[in-house]
Amino acid sequence: WAMTADNLKRLKRTEMQMLGRMMGVSLGNGLSNEVIKKGLGVYELLDVVRCIRLKWFDHGERKANED
Q1: Distance between CA atoms of 38 and 42, rounded to whole angstroms?
Q2: How far is CA 35 from CA 13, 14, 51, 55, 66, in A?
Q3: What is the pLDDT of residues 3-44, one digit of tens each?
Q4: How far apart are CA 7 and CA 61, in angstroms?
């Protein structure tokens, strides 16, 4: 699907809510998103989405060149 700015913002917000729950952190603790992500050892969501999209783009390019 086409990732709009609104979709990305919602996805990031949902991701951080889930990661916060996994660490047992509430919004009032004042931990930054980076601290939470490092604590769990997860990658930035935008980087993962970008990597997957590039893999599909490369796949499509290779298929187009085979014809």
Answers
A1: 7
A2: 15, 17, 23, 29, 45
A3: 788 988 998 889 888 898 888 887 777 888 888 888 889 888
A4: 26
Residue whose tokens read 């992500």: 37
pTM: 0.64
Total residue count of the chain as it appears in this document: 67
The helix/strand/coil state of 48 is helix
Q: Quickly tell me which residue has 């729950």 as its tokens.
A: 21
How many domains does the structure of the chain reveal? Answer: 1
- Confirm if 39 and 20 have CB atoms less than 8 A apart: no
Place of tokens 């809510």: 17
Please work out, in degrees rounded to the nearest 5, the angle formed at the alpha carbon of residue 33 by the alpha carbons of 31 and 36: 70
